[in-house]
Design goal:
It contains eleven helices and twelve strands. It is of the alpha/beta class and about 350 residues long.
Length: about 350
């Protein structure tokens, strides 16, 4: 069983409900009022946490228009990196108010830093834990700096080779920080089902013995619910008020009712997964009587011989278990038995009562 760690007093790991993160990202579309609305909507939709991102265009890249900085494929095809981050970033002057609003409504507040200055800024806000994006998995100095704050870390692994993931985990562990969860992720927007490779969740848990989750960029809730069935401890999903509010993230984000439905599905999956159990459940007790058992199907006189003609394995289950059928054949009845009588050990000469 994978280990666990605490986020604001809540255990994240096996044996605990999946921790569900609503990723705001650029879905505020430049409006702090919409960002505040998203916090309330995320809480109402069942999220445990609202997540933002802490960067500026200048901390992410440089304002350069040559071919290296142009996006040639995918959701943001034709855009320039600097201009994309200008449209998507969450102004730092908002973030204290967003943190306070999250505390007011009772939802955890999380951010992804992208460089040392953003880590320092978030430390000033007193954040309780950090998210590391897939693209920063290979930035070992940044990982070490985040880990040095000795707070829980949730790290996405999209595009990472096993060697790169091992290096990133080692970099964090080498600081003495062992509070780590890994996220299976596909850094495509939206991600295709055939490229999700959700079985990797089990492999990551087996290899690292820590909580593992899914940062889900696919459409709908199928992948999230499936991930939980595979053992995911954390689910992260992009969240918007409406996809009609266009911004760099809206096209692959969930609206509140969709997010609420996903949360419901995740919680139902958790109930259905349950525990290892064999036998009759409480709900099945009333139906257990309809299993098969041995019954008299023709009248038998006292001393009469039990044969395939006068006893059968039929429903309901008031008689002996069918496993005794061959043993009963050829034995004699201790008393007269009428058709429709459930057969018991007390009815049979030479058969002692015994356990099931």
């Amino acid at each position: 069983m994978a280990g666990s760690f605490q986020i604001h007093g809540r255990s994240v790991g096996d044996g605990s409900p999946a921790y569900i993160i609503a990723e705001m990202s650029g879905n505020h579309a430049g409006s702090i009022e919409r960002a505040l609305e998203l916090i309330h909507a995320a809480k109402e939709a069942g999220a445990d946490c609202i997540k933002i991102q802490t960067y500026t265009p200048d901390t992410m890249t440089i304002d350069c228009r040559n071919q290296y900085f142009q996006i040639e494929k995918g959701t943001w095809e034709g855009d320039n990196l600097y201009s994309l981050y200008q449209k998507a970033y969450t102004p730092w002057e908002w973030q204290e108010e967003l943190r306070d609003e999250a505390a007011k409504v009772g939802i955890d507040f999380l951010s992804t830093p992208f460089d040392k200055t953003s880590v320092d800024f978030l430390e000033g806000l007193g954040v309780g834990f950090y998210k590391i994006a897939s693209f920063e998995l290979v930035d070992i100095p940044l990982l070490e700096y985040i880990a040095s704050k000795n707070k829980p870390i949730i790290m996405s692994t999209a595009m990472g080779t096993l060697e790169e993931i091992n290096e990133a985990v080692a970099a964090i562990y080498n600081t003495g920080n062992r509070q780590l969860a890994l996220m299976k992720c596909s850094s495509a927007y939206p991600a295709k089902s055939e490229e999700m490779n959700l079985c990797t969740i089990r492999d990551l848990k087996a290899r690292f013995d820590i909580p593992v989750g899914l940062s889900d960029h696919s459409m709908g809730s199928f992948s999230a619910a499936t991930a939980v069935a595979l053992g995911a401890n954390i689910i992260e999903k992009h969240f918007c008020i409406s996809r009609a509010v266009k911004n760099p993230d809206s096209g692959f984000s969930m609206e509140p009712e969709e997010f609420r439905e996903m949360v419901c599905q995740v919680r139902e999956v958790e109930k259905a997964m349950g525990k290892v159990y064999y036998g009759v459940t409480e709900q099945e007790e009333s139906n257990a009587v309809f299993r098969r058992s041995l019954f008299v199907v023709k009248d038998i006189e006292a001393g009469g011989v039990f044969t395939p003609d006068n006893i059968r394995s039929i429903r309901p289950a008031y008689g002996l278990k069918p496993k005794y059928y061959k043993e009963v054949l050829g034995k004699t009845a201790k008393r007269e038995l009428k058709r429709g009588t459930p057969l018991t050990f007390d009815d049979i000469e030479g058969m002692e009562a015994r356990g099931s």
